[in-house]
């Protein structure tokens, strides 16, 4: 049976998981109905297309060597019906009920002995509009790989059969002197960079969280999902008027939305800036799907104490420009790159310590997941909205993910259900903040 060792960062994500802190990411996709298409047909279609994706037939097994390592192996008893289920929603507003049930389903860790993914078809009483909830373990997929897996399921991008990569033949000889020298130089460079990142992490660590109790909590094991839709053209208007990137504008909206929410709930604005971890993909276009997680990140202080929305945007632009000038391979935000320098056994036994250390480095994850610009559908039913979902780090109560699609930016807010019962209000604050930012920019 063929196998593939987990890449170091994948292995780290695998061992970071606990019952209270499942390490899966996800997406809740809403589809408009089409006459003649019912939930059972969608379920069958999902099962057929998911079963044709080789990566979704793989599970994780321990290996003898390297010690502490693990490998992806084909599940000999793979049954796609274990992974694709239908859930009928109770009466009520479909979107509201879908978000509530999706939050509950996101609480449950994925079974470790099976391929680590699940899909749920959520249907209402009338069997018309439906939604699909996708859960993928972070060891299986980062944001870009999750999009690639989705590409194998949606109508326009699905392929009738699984496409296998041609195996790379083993080398027939020993490396020459130049290859050895090149490897040594690369290794020294990697270790030097790792030492620099480690030193940056130590300098950036804090004993006190910048956001106080609002963004920090002991896990209750519960999850609540809230969603928001932002007008992408409004984001672009602000970008054109104020400069920077669309992502800068969205990060400023997050900062302003958090400010509104903190003030409304009586938490007050923290004295120190809460820190956002902003992931950066290092995946090259066309990289093979089995090449492991390719992530780094930037650390960004969110200017929630600033009352002027344009000043908040300017502060975000300055900080992100500084991050980009340094590059994704430097600074404390690049902590994920340290995974490549650690042996597998260190990931196995160091995961609890690493998980607890996250709260000393950042307060909230804010990630952007790009989607194809073309209109997408499933079974001929148009994709109406898609809300990405990120996992919660240990000791944190909120994660924010954003995906532009169809002229709108879809925001998925994943919160600890007991620590942040008012996450729906935060979603409203984000919409209000974009309106204020757009108005302030237009008034200049």
UniProtKB/TrEMBL annotation:
Pathway given in the UniProt record: Glycerolipid metabolism; triacylglycerol biosynthesis; Lipid metabolism
Keyword DNA repair: no
InterPro entries assigned: Acyl_transf_WS/DGAT (IPR014292), O-acyltransferase_WSD1-like (IPR045034), O-acyltransferase_WSD1_C (IPR009721), O-acyltransferase_WSD1_N (IPR004255)
Chain ranges of the O-acyltransferase WSD1-like N-terminal domain: 6-249
Keyword Transferase listed: yes
Top EC group: transferase
Domain O-acyltransferase WSD1 C-terminal: 292-437
NCBIfam families the UniProt entry points to: acyl_WS_DGAT
Name the record gives this protein: Diacylglycerol O-acyltransferase
Organism expressing this protein natively: Streptomyces xanthochromogenes
């Amino acid at each position: 049976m063929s196998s593939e060792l987990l890449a170091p960062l994948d292995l780290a994500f695998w061992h970071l998981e606990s019952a209270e802190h499942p390490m899966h990411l996800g997406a809740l996709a809403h589809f408009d109905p089409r006459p003649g298409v019912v939930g059972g047909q969608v379920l069958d279609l999902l099962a057929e297309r998911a079963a044709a994706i080789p990566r979704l037939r793989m599970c994780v097994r321990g290996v003898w060597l390297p010690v502490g390592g693990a490998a992806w192996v084909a599940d000999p008893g793979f049954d796609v019906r274990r992974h694709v289920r239908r859930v009928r929603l109770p009466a009520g507003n479909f979107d509201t009920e879908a978000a509530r049930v999706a939050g509950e389903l996101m609480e449950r860790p994925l079974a470790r002995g099976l391929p680590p993914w699940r899909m749920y078809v959520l249907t209402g009483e009338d069997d018309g509009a439906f939604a699909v909830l996708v859960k993928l373990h972070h060891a299986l997929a980062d944001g870009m790989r999750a999009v690639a897996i989705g590409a194998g399921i949606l109508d326009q991008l699905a392929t009738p059969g699984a496409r296998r990569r041609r195996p790379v033949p083993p080398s027939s000889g020993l490396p020459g002197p130049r290859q050895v020298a090149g490897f040594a130089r690369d290794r020294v460079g990697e270790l030097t960079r790792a030492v620099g990142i480690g030193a940056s992490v130590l300098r950036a660590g804090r004993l006190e969280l910048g956001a106080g109790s609002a963004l920090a909590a002991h896990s209750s094991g519960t999850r609540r999902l809230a969603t928001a839709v932002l007008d992408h053209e409004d984001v672009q208007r602000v970008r054109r008027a104020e400069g920077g990137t669309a992502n800068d504008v969205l990060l400023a909206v997050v900062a302003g939305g958090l400010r509104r929410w903190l003030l409304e709930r009586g938490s007050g604005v923290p004295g120190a800036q809460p820190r956002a971890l902003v992931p950066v993909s290092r995946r090259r276009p066309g990289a093979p799907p089995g090449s492991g997680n390719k992530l780094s990140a930037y650390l960004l202080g969110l200017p929630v104490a600033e009352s002027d929305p344009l000043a908040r945007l300017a502060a975000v632009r300055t900080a992100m420009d500084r991050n980009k000038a340094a590059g994704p391979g430097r600074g404390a935000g690049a902590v994920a790159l340290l995974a490549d320098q650690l042996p597998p056994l260190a990931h196995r036994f160091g995961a609890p310590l690493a998980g607890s250390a996250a709260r000393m480095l950042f307060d909230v994850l804010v990630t952007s997941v790009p989607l194809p610009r073309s209109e997408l559908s499933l079974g001929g039913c148009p994709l109406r909205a898609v809300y990405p979902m990120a996992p919660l780090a240990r000791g944190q109560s909120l994660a924010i993910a954003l995906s532009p699609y169809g002229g709108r930016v879809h925001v998925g807010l994943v919160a600890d259900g007991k620590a942040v019962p008012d996450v729906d209000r935060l979603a409203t604050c984000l919409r209000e903040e974009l309106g204020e930012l757009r108005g302030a920019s237009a008034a200049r």
